[in-house]
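Contributing: when you submit paired examples, paste them exactly as shown. First protein:
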Amino acid sequence: MLDLVLLRHGQSTWNAENLFTGWVDVDLTDIGEAEARAAGTMLAEEPGLDLRVLHTSVLTRAIHTAELALRAAKRSWLPVRRDWRLNERHYGDLQGKNKIATAEKFGKEKLQLWRRSYDTPPPELSPDNPTSTAADPRYRDIDPSLIPTTECLADVVRRVLPYWESAIVPDLRQTAEKGGAVLVVAHGNSIRALRKYLEGISDEAIVGLEVPTGIPYRLLLEDDLTVHSAQPLGDPAAAEAAAAAVARQAG
């Protein structure tokens, strides 16, 4: 079996303030740090899980979560690969805006369409939006035409899958030969993109998938990458409650 663990970063400062974050580089709250350490404990206690490689986005909240989780799991020494294609979905001109206030302004149906639909992006990032990453050095060597100004989930799927195929799958196959596993620490929508692809979730059903912060999700894959089993680590009821909390963020 190919052994894959997906982990959304712990609560960030903008999660706590209920703001659209996207590519804005914010860090974890104290709660988020505790979630990351708790995730590490779950990883350490999971039977048969032997983490060998770590993949993260280039955003601090994912990097910090991975560091804290692996420290708790006594795996800080894992080799690390970071890539912008694992970044959160770019929320365009919604970045920095409060989710409830946005729902009140545009209506809950419109907001839900922007937040969770498969192929409807939010408005593009306006020139005066202070959350622009145009001058961010972590993206300076990337073709500017690849840097988004807004994204729907379909766009995230299109950028995540090439990285999945070129970087994560080879690591999965190599570690599987030694009985090992790959950990991917990323974001709600980059994980939704991977789960949609791997679990064959339809464009319509993906609207209802919420990814909670700080709860590892383990998938065992056949050699042809079909899913043999998939489940959150720890208490399933706690994972369900955390996912429901994410769904309530827009009021």
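Second protein:
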Amino acid sequence: MKRPRVSVSAVIWLLLGAGYFLIPLFATFIFSLKSNQTGKCCTAANYSFVIHSGEFWHSLKISFLLAVETIVISLLIFVPTIYWVHLKLPRLRPVIAFLALIPFVVPPIVMVVGLLQVFRDTPDWFYAQPWGFLAGAYVILAFPYMFFSLDAGFRSIDVHTLTEASQSLGASWPTTLVKVILPNIRAAALAASFLTLAIVMGEFTIANLAAFHTFPIYIQLVNETQGFPAAALTLVSFGITWAAMLSLLVVGRQRGARGAMIAGAR
């Protein structure tokens, strides 16, 4: 049996892509090892400064909880909506796809000013708290990523056949959605969650203009005051974001495998 031939051009492009991604990270890592007093390498004091900073953990907690809240709200809104559109209202799909492009067209600085005016008269528990105002703004910001990812997942399965088979066995609409449709679009839901997590963890403009102290605001504050610790903080935040996305992937695969085992046993 012949082994598949590896294209030289593919290897070259792979190495170029890896270099484009890894070289800046390596340069940032070298920069983060320099002393903040002498400017010489190598010391881990900058990482110690980041890890032992109370503001670091406080702002990271806020951003991470906001990301989780945004993912949950977005999935609760868009999964049933897109399911119903594919099942009963396919003519509305182009309309929703057009609406999903609006967050790309409207700059965040314009969107946040409008949202601040619209929600001015709302209760303080919503307007003055990041769990209300920022979560609502981030759901809008994540709308296109959620829609197009989930839409691709729904288009890859036969929604009508799965729904008819489930209901012929006596399942209700919520049971059909949760136990039949959702496991089949798990990969799309995870992809949408990854994108939403990355957006929320890195969003600066809306949080800054709304005067909420999130993780990107803390990064900018350190960047304006201390150069070398800012590089260490950037790498730490990068690693935390990737670790969070990998954990979501592992959890999603474990639940998928468990569901497949249960289905096979039945």
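If you have annotations for the second protein, write them as plain sentences, like these:
The first helix runs from residue 8 to 32.
The CA atoms of residues 103 and 125 lie 25 Å apart.
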